[in-house]
Amino acid sequence: MTAPLTPPPPPHEPSSHGPAPHQPAPHPPSPYDGWSSAPGGYEGAAPHVVSYGQDGPGMKTELREAAVITVAVALSGALLGVLWAWLATKVPLVGDVVDDSWVVYLKDTEGEQAIGVDGTFTLLALAFGAVSAAAVFAWRRRGGVPLVVALAVGGLLGSLLAWKVGMWLGPDADVIAHAREVGKGVTFSAPLKLGAKGAWLAWSVAALLVHLGLTALFGPRDPEYPLQGAAPKDGYGAPVS
Question: How far is Cα 216 from Cα 5, in angstroms, rounded to an integer?
């Protein structure tokens, strides 16, 4: 009598006597499991994302503000011109008649009144530069290229306007006519004259330095945004850069 034959297991069902020929044997975990050749090097890890907020107003708004600052700073140069004509040192002149012609000369040839005129303008320009920078910073407590350019250009235009206004409000520029008017040997003041043309830049330089210092000390700081998602790590637990 023949024993019944045991039917072979189905092709897709694992045999109780060992793994199927087509099924790979399990292997121990590797520290490089999950590594991918895709950008970032790690498959399934959360992306390295940083959120950024709005970084101030738009460029159009900054340009409009810069235009307003330029005009306001430049127009304030008229006040500088008035103060210069009022506070500047007077240079004494004397008129005389030589061969039926009027001549004008300095009464004090060794005096330093002309240097005082330039110094008064420079000191006033430095003060106006500091005040204008403080006012702009109080209005807009931040920096920015448009604001800095507006302060520099407005300061230069304000200095030129102050120079013109001071000469217009000062003594008569026609010294011969002035000498004839006051008479021979009578002392009169010379017209305002700015000998050191570099004084035109004093306003702009002071405004830039003061605004830079105020922004560095009291300006807003960049916020520190937290990272969204964990950085990917390798099989040893070290972060993947």
Answer: 93
